């Protein structure tokens, strides 16, 4: 009887082990589409090609076989970036709109990817370039299944990619830069939060606007730029840092006005 019990236990262990080996091994899951080809254009060239469409806040389908490749420099880990990824290839940074959350679990900062743009749309949101699909005749976020058909994951996340080194900018740069080239991945040193008084939070829910965000003011030299934080960010109720700060983030523009968004609270030093 003892031998029979031992045999049954061994058989059950083998069955469960087999199930785990074939169905529960996360390494068997491939995110995206490995068939996406190699990059044949840059983000800067893609923006230039559709500059007229973007500036007029229209959207146009990419008809050519255009593939870009870059590194994720902005994800939705903290909740401050919502249903977007920011991808940088050294020539520029592009906003990619995806109607999904929890993207950082598969495509965190430091993940290199290739995107087949054919069949997607490039358009202007607040006169800034975005890659996505049509929504009510304008540029919008693409469905997640569409995204997975157009993206290829390249290797493992690597924080040593040069694309993850932000461009250091100052007041002079802000006054001379071409807003049509936004977004930018930047770092601003020795800035100050105008509203920081030890009592003011970044983005309390009660102060959220229609987009569930709160605009504060970042003073760069004698220039003030909006500093936008989502009320859903996991640091939204933290008190704003006082004094001089170094801020890393995504510098965007909306209808000609700069706007800075950080990825996590770690971007504020």
UniProtKB/TrEMBL annotation:
Domain DUF5689: 39-268
Pfam families: DUF5689 (PF18942)
PROSITE patterns the record matches: PROKAR_LIPOPROTEIN (PS51257)
InterPro entries: DUF5689
Top-rank taxon: Bacteria
Record-given protein name: DUF5689 domain-containing protein
Species whose genome carries this gene: Paraprevotella clara
